[in-house]
Design goal:
Blueprint (H helix, E strand, L loop, with lengths): L2 H14 L3 E4 L8 E8 L3 E8 L2 E9 L5 E3 L2 H12 L2 H4 L11 H8 L5 E6 L5 E9 L3 E7 L10 E4 L3 E6 L2 H7 L7
Antiparallel strand pairs: 1-2, 1-5, 2-3, 3-4, 4-10, 6-7, 6-10, 7-8, 8-9
Length: about 180
């Protein structure tokens, strides 16, 4: 899909609050079912859905988007969430500067410090807390699936980040039960 066409489809979906499936085969195996909220030339902010319910927000790189799908299943999904009252309850996460990863993370700091960072070429993702935001990278302290904080922080280059999720059910739930940091 050509970039211009992709951006036009995203802009129409943002205007209409339409449900889309977004394909990012280089960085994710499955399509992302979402409602786009806002975009820049670099990043896209979306509501993520799981089983007809919103599951937080995700910011992804536009360069990773291979295709956009809006056909019968997305239209049906949209009708269902309208009928279930989900649309009426959707909220945006406030102003987020989507100019680049640094500005996006700065916008989230203090409101959504706990998040999930996915990186280029890694099958892993880091769940944890933003510690420091530099010009070219961020310092991130993460915890494992048992709720234990790592002994050291990680420095993540902005160029390596492919997605950032926040205010999602997984993170909101696990943060309640993780060990308190020293």
């Amino acid at each position: 899909m050509e970039t211009n066409e992709l951006l036009q489809l995203l802009d129409r979906a943002i205007q209409g609050r339409n449900v889309l499936s977004i394909e990012r085969p280089e960085v994710a195996e499955t399509e992302m079912l979402c409602i786009p909220i806002a975009r820049s030339d670099e990043l896209l902010l979306v509501h993520i859905f799981y089983d007809f319910y919103p599951d937080g927000y995700r910011i992804v790189r536009i360069e990773d988007i291979y295709g956009i799908i809006r056909d019968g299943s997305e239209e049906f999904f949209e009708r269902v969430i309208h009928a279930e009252g989900v649309y009426a309850r959707l909220r945006t996460p406030g102003d987020i500067d989507l100019g680049n990863w640094h500005s996006a993370l700065l916008s989230l700091r203090g409101r959504h410090d706990y998040c999930i960072i996915e990186c280029d070429g890694d099958d892993d993702f880091l769940v944890g807390k933003m510690v420091e935001l530099g010009q070219w990278d961020c310092t991130f302290w993460y915890f494992d699936a048992t709720g234990k904080w790592d002994d050291e922080v990680d420095v993540v280059d902005y160029d390596d980040i492919t997605a950032l999720s926040f205010d999602d059910n997984y993170t909101k739930t696990i943060v309640k039960y993780i060990e308190k940091p020293q």
